[in-house]
Amino acid sequence: MTLELYLAYVVATLVVLAVPGPTILLIISYALSQGRRAALSTVVGVGLGDAIAVTVSLAGLGAVMATSATAFTVLKWVGAAYLVYLGIKMWRTNPSLSLDGAQTVSARRMTLHTTIVTALNPKGIAFFVAFLPHFLNPAAPAAPQLVLLGTTFVVLGIANAALYALFAAHLRARITKPGTLRWANRAGGTMLLGAGLVTATLRRT
Fold this sequence. Notes:
The protein has 205 residues and is mostly helical. The protein has helices at 3-18, 22-34, 37-58, 61-67, 69-92, 107-119, 122-131, 142-173, 178-200.
């Protein structure tokens, strides 16, 4: 793979990652409700979820998702239902209690939730299969190139998620009034519900 081709892939990946999807909405929601403590946990979840998505795509599931309407639909609805479930839970949380740690979400749970949402995104799984081959050098072995491109995507995804998480946590740190906290929590829950609806409307391309 030439340097020019790799740099083109990096630029294309940054453009794709800049568009907020269900994972980013989940990260922002947790950062708004839990503060800076959510940043590390959710970013780790993004890394794990992207790594899983890349791995299963390269293993062949991405091709199945791209050609099977049933497989795509099943994974789509599972992911959408999970996001709606998280959104409802966030709406029902009393944000005033989270200030003293009485009603916080554990770091492990936030990592798990983010990993699941990222890995269950059917559009992402099919995307890797359609996206990565365009940047392969046919004259060179494919496996090392796929590993490099997949790893690059995961690293850039982590960096992108970290920026969103830290920005949202910065906003959360400036919120002190209980009424505003409740608004932030419900805004986060609404974002998750919206992400679930967006996921439910995804179509195969």
